[in-house]
Design a protein that fits this description.
Blueprint (H helix, E strand, L loop, with lengths): L1 E3 L4 H14 L12 H10 L2 H17 L4 H4 E3 L3 H10 L6 H9 E4 L10 E2 L2 H12 L10 E7 L2 E6 L10 E5 L5 E4 L2 H13 L3 E4 L2 E4 L1 H11 L13
Antiparallel strand pairs: 1-10, 2-3, 4-5, 5-6, 6-7, 7-8, 9-10
């Protein structure tokens, strides 16, 4: 198992930005969201499954006494989420409203999901603004970061036309953006199952994982979508 600890967002972000400027070719890739991917995200949306997954993740943190329990911020009113995101040029989906009305991110040393921090709406907007302003950055302007770790993010597709869900991308300043999850529901469900099945465990003050087990769970929830990280063939 490998062990990852969540570091300060700003420090990881700035270090990654320098690397991006040095590795220009890895940061220039275009990203397209196909209508079929959006349709699949809409079809797979289930608000109750999303909430159950979030509650399961919180319960795991409570059992392991991580500082996430005290670090989660109260959720925002849906009207406030809509106001903030629309002002930032991102039409919120039902998934976004559910996520940030459940809790508005976390301020903690422990990551919320498998070694990624949970951003507040304000942090998501701020980091999107920064990412879209970087020369050679391939961050798509129609995605909003929701989870972050040292120069990599999971991004949620900004809606439009009353959409309830959209695909999730994984983006690293060292690599191109890739669509890795059907939608936020499958991302959260996958992460919750990885914790319940002990594919990811809490030890020595951080998360450790059996990456092959995490990979298998990812594929069960997101068949046909690439895993964000390299996994040795078995």
């Amino acid at each position: 198992m490998m062990n990852y600890r969540s570091g300060p967002i700003k420090a990881g972000l700035m270090g990654g930005l320098v690397l991006c400027l040095l590795v220009v070719s890895a940061c220039r890739a275009d990203f397209r969201t196909s209508p079929s991917a959006v349709a699949a995200a809409e079809d797979a949306f289930d608000n109750q499954i999303l909430l159950n997954g979030l509650d399961t993740i919180l319960g795991w943190h409570q059992e392991n006494a991580t500082d996430i329990v005290d670090g989660l911020r109260p959720g925002l009113a849906v009207s406030r989420i809509d106001e903030l995101l629309q002002d930032a040029g991102c039409e919120p989906t039902a998934e976004m409203r559910t996520l940030w009305s459940w809790r508005d991110g976390a301020e903690a040393a422990a990551p919320f999901i498998w070694y990624h921090d949970f951003l507040s709406v304000d942090e998501a907007i701020s980091q999107r603004r920064l990412l879209t302003g970087i020369p050679f950055s391939a961050w798509p302007s129609n995605y909003l970061p929701a989870f972050s770790f040292s120069g990599e993010w999971y991004g949620l597709h900004c809606g439009g036309d009353g959409r309830v869900a959209g695909p999730v991308l994984h983006y690293s300043l060292e690599d191109e953006a890739r669509m890795t999850h059907v939608n936020l529901t499958t991302l959260v469900s996958q992460m919750a199952e990885a914790l319940v099945e002990e594919a990811v465990v809490w030890e020595n003050g951080g998360m450790s994982e059996d990456i092959q087990a995490v990979y298998r769970i990812h594929q069960q929830h997101n068949p046909g979508y690439p895993f964000p990280y390299y996994v040795e063939p078995q």
